[in-house]
Amino acid sequence: MANFEMNKSDAAPRQKATQQYFKSVQDSSWLIKFCFILLGLLIAVALLAPLLAPHDPNAQSLLSRLRPPIGFDRYKEGFLVGTDELGRDLLSRLLYGLRFTLLIAVIGSIISMIIGSVIGIISGFVGGIVDNLLMGLVDIQIAFPFTLMALLAVAVFGTDLTIFVIIIGLADWDKYARVVRGQIIAIREAPYIDAVRVTGAGPYRIIRHHMLPNIASPIIVLWTFGVSNVILLESSLSFLGLGVQPPTATLGSMTGFGRDYLASYPHIGLAPALMILVIALVFLLLGDWLRDTLDVRLKRQT
Amino acid sequence: MNFIIMRVVRAVLTMVLVVTAVFFASRISGNPIDIMFPEGLSPEEYAFWENYFGLDKSYFQQYLAYFRGLIQGNFGLSLTEFRPVTEIYAERLPNTIYLFGSAFLLALAVGLPLGIYAAVNRDKPITTAIMAVAFFGYAIPNYILAIFMILIFSFWLHLMPSSGNMTWVHFVMPTVTLAMAMMAWNIRFTRSAMLEILNEDFVRTARAKGLREVVVINKHALRNAMIPIVSNLGLQVAGFVGWVVLVEAVFALEGIGALIVRGALLRDFAVLQFGIIVWAAVVIAANLIVDFIYTLLDPRVRIVK
């Protein structure tokens, strides 16, 4: 019964927030609208990569190695962006690379979100010495450069894809933990939580049904920032050769291999590099905008 | 004083934790002898090396021995080069110090004044330009910037060497690449710190007293804004070591960043361990120094802890 009441009263403000959200997209500058279009395009292209790619991304052809993009000498019909050092179609590799990059980023940031939120909830809900210990861990994670930890992990566990995703997933949890902890502490003593507690609800029920719905939106906002962080982390590790192993390509590893051919065949490295640049700019612009529009509650917290 | 002691204790604990994590991580991954001699060894030879490295003892004894070695300055032998890791690092350390030091100073010398300017002159067109540059420098991953720079200045204009570390010219592009990100960070941070202070009541009071704008900015606003700015610089050391690794990799600059990456790729654990431990020590020390400076700049920290 109480639950039903809660939902009913929750629905109205939530709907209002969605409306506000769409309104602020409409009011935003042309740059932000453009970014949204680009973002949609990137996601669509990544999803549809198998349909859009003109060739198999890993099919090698020694006869058509190192061909330049359309409009240059030695351009080969059907290979719009040219081919790489093994004669693989660069456009197809870019599409699949984008797909992989986004996939790893989404899974990795979701792992971060889950770990961070769980730690944040425990820390905020239990408090005391547990809280101190967990927040000490967070401090260490912040003070210690993550690239080094990732290097160690790669050396220890090798460059398996699953392991790589897990490593990526451990990069960002501290941010979620801090914010979630703050949110939990803020509502821990709220009258409605007390009321639920008085009716005899256990900690799981309180967290699952009464706290989580209230702290969900800041977590989701953080997650949208997290995805772009993780994309950059993934591409820099892959660039160093520590990420996904060939022949599978992500944008970072393609840039890394392209580095060796910059002098004579710049298109191999330049194409994925430009793509990473576009992604980075789009995510950062949208992130800044999102912070300004939606982030009132977070601003108060941190 | 209490505050400082607490911080030192915490720094030491963090360091011990890092060393422990590094030690056990490298033991999980297998026996170093297998990595040193991939072809395999006869049982006698195997036993000899096992005894030589102390691998026949228990993990805990090995761990204690490792710690003792660290304190005595013995960081082990590189598994690929068969010489002390300290020697290898000593050869390469100057390159990294030149790179990071010059980038840090450049970013400070350019970023700080620009950030203050952008905060004081909010609506001038130059400010918009500065913030656009800052945004771009902040957004673009530095190895991507490096690739553009190499294409333009090395292969197109033929002005700069694309890789190596033979002369100071080789350091120009890596330094600028690294400094770009740090500068952007400095501008953004300094500006927001200054803006916050400029909104404070005491700044208005200073202006109302009829103080000249220069005095208001330099003496009243800047001095207060310095507290977050200094702590940000300390965090910068932590944040940008990862960037040093990338910049060194792109420009094939033989610094310790590139060395650590090679250690990870070849599973040369002695090299990797030393790199991580030293780098962690630098980061932790930087944070500690920031805390010290904090207490000097802001008497409130000393009292409240």
Indicate the topology:
The complex is a heterodimer of chains A (302) and B (305).
Chain A: H1 2-27, H2 30-47, H3 49-52, H4 90-126, H5 128-143, H6 146-157, H7 161-169, H8 173-188, H9 191-198, H10 203-239, H11 251-259, H12 267-294, H13 296-301
Chain B: H1 2-28, H2 32-36, H3 43-52, H4 59-72, H5 85-120, H6 125-139, H7 142-156, H8 169-198, H9 201-208, H10 213-250, H11 256-265, H12 269-297, H13 299-304
Helix pairs in contact in B: 1-12, 5-6, 5-8, 5-10, 6-8, 7-8, 7-10, 8-10, 9-10, 10-11, 10-12, 11-12
- CATH H-level superfamily title of the domain at 105-295 in chain A: MetI-like
Beta content of chain B = under 5%
- CATH secondary-structure class of the domain at 105-295 in chain A: Mainly Alpha
Radius of gyration of chain B: 24 Å
Q: Give the name of the CATH architecture of the domain at 95-257 in chain B.
A: Orthogonal Bundle
Distance between the termini of chain A: 35 Å
Q: How can the largest sheet of chain A be summarized?
A: none
Mean pLDDT of chain A: 78
CATH architecture verdict of the domain at 105-295 in chain A: Orthogonal Bundle
Kindly report the name of the CATH homologous superfamily of the domain at 95-257 in chain B: MetI-like
Task: Outline the biggest β-sheet of chain B.
Answer: none
Most residues in contact, chain pair and counts: A-B, 39 and 46 residues
Distance from first to last alpha carbon of chain B:
9 Å
> Can you count the beta strands of chain A?
0
Q: Which regions of chain B are unreliable across 5 or more consecutive residues at pLDDT < 50?
A: none
- Work out the radius of gyration of chain A: 23 Å
Mean pLDDT of chain B: 80
Number of strands of chain B: 0
Question: Which structural class best describes the helix and strand composition of chain A?
Answer: mainly alpha
Quaternary state of this entry equals: heterodimer
What is the approximate shape of chain A? elongated
